[in-house]
Amino acid sequence: MKVGITYDLKGDLSGRPDLPDDFQEEFDSPATVEAIAQVLRGLGHRVEKLGDGRELLERLLADPPDFVFNFAEGQGIGRCREARVPAVLEMLGIPYTGSDPLTLAATLDKDCAKRLVESAGVTVPRGVIIDPAEADSVLSTQYSVLSTLAFPVIVKPAWEGSSKGIRNKCLVDDPSDLADVVGSMLQDYSQPVLVEEYIQGDELTVGVLGNAPPRVLGIMRVVPTRPSDRFVYSLEVKRDWERQVSYECPARLSAADTKAVESAALRAYRVLGCRDVSRLDFRLRDGVPYFLEVNPLPGLNPDYSDLVILARGIGWSYEQLIGTIVQEALDRHARAGITVTTAKT
User: Fold this and answer.
1) Nearest-5° angle of CA 34, CA 39, CA 40?
2) Cα gap 231→237, rounded to integer Å
3) Which residues, including other chains, have CB under 8 Å from residue 297's CB and lie 6 or more apart?
């Protein structure tokens, strides 16, 4: 069948010193797109690289594919940007991999995702959202909602993924330092800021695949090269991962902890409406998994994306991972009575 790939590529921002250096952190390289295309071709399909934006719309209208492998992150800073491509595909009746527009919008908003996950009985860190319009009053009020939080806290942009905005400086010990960190983040990212309690414990990421029912692919523990009780899986760490961390997969956890993390991941996956594939991040403290966030469009770089490293750790090839995502989506559409052309061309 003819399979389209939707994506966003990193561009040249050398002339935009006004933008933070992680502005395009979520976006992919041509090498990642081609790696996925090669797997799809290996499965016997004809591949068209569709991109995103106006070019995508023109291509879909001129010659629609039978099926789309979607990992487009969306342009701009709006919290619904990841939902745009699936919304267009649904409007045109084109089946695709991954979660639907509602899930992609709800999960990009970290506070919204946490509220939904907490409603399913999964523990989340206590946190407070600071809206740009209210930041001055919240930060200057001695007995504001921030006083309910235990320090240290982590400061994050509310509507970002791929660790955008999460730097080493985002771990704040003293309430007197909070205003500067929040103010800088509001200026750089032009969106609400999430301030949440720092959970000391194991940094875990969980891969989940499938739909009927979903299943845990594996649990990976991110271990700092230099042991620290204040480890933050920050952007600086991710960009220097070969020196700063090791990835333990399968994670060496007790049977009880493994069961608790897997249960929390599946509950979160279901309540958020994730489909086909997602990667969920937790901190494990005293046997309790704390949900941090979920990425229903996980990175798929064949060398260094967390989900790919996790899959490799349990013995899966890149081809097996991509092929399984495609098959899960095709099976899901078939159960819904949607016929997808499966003839290989």
Assistant:
1) 95
2) 10
3) 70, 71, 72, 73, 82, 98, 99, 104, 161
For the chain, what is the largest distance between any 2 Cα atoms, rounded to a whole number of angstroms? 66
Question: Per-residue pLDDT for 343 more than 70?
Answer: no
Other Cβ atoms within 10 Å of 194 Cβ, number:
25
Residue 337 to residue 156: CA distance in whole angstroms: 41
Exposure string for 121-147, b = 16+ CB within 10 A, e = fewer:
ebbbbebbbbeeeebeebbeeeeeebe
- Report helix angle 30-42 to 318-335, nearest 10: 70
Handedness of CA 177, 178, 179, 185 (dihedral sign): positive
Cβ atoms of 190 and 132 within 8 Å: the answer is yes
Residues 216-253 pLDDT 10s: 999 999 999 998 888 999 989 999 999 999 999 999 99
CA-CA distance, 127 to 283, in Å (whole number)?
15
Residue type (1 letter), 198: Y
pLDDT category, 342, cuts 50, 70, 90? low
Q: List pLDDT tens digits, range 140-163.
A: 765 567 888 899 999 999 999 878
HEC profile of the chain? CEEEEECCECCCCCCCCCCCCCCCCCCECHHHHHHHHHHHHHCCCEEEEEECHHHHHHHHHHCCCCEEEECCCCCCCCCCHHHHHHHHHHHHCCCECCCCHHHHHHHHCHHHHHHHHHHCCCCCCCEEEECHHHHHHHHHCCCCHHHHCCCCEEEEECCCCCCCCCCHHHEECCHHHHHHHHHHHHHHHCCCEEEEECCCCEEEEEEEECCCCCEEEEEEEEEECCCCCCCCCCHHHHHCHHHHEEEECCCCCCHHHHHHHHHHHHHHHHHCCCCCEEEEEEEEECCEEEEEEEECCCCCCCCCCHHHHHHHHCCCCHHHHHHHHHHHHHHHHHHCCCCCCCCCC
Specify the pairing of strand 2-6 against strand 46-51: parallel
Tokens linked to 34: 């081609």
Q: Structure pTM?
A: 0.93
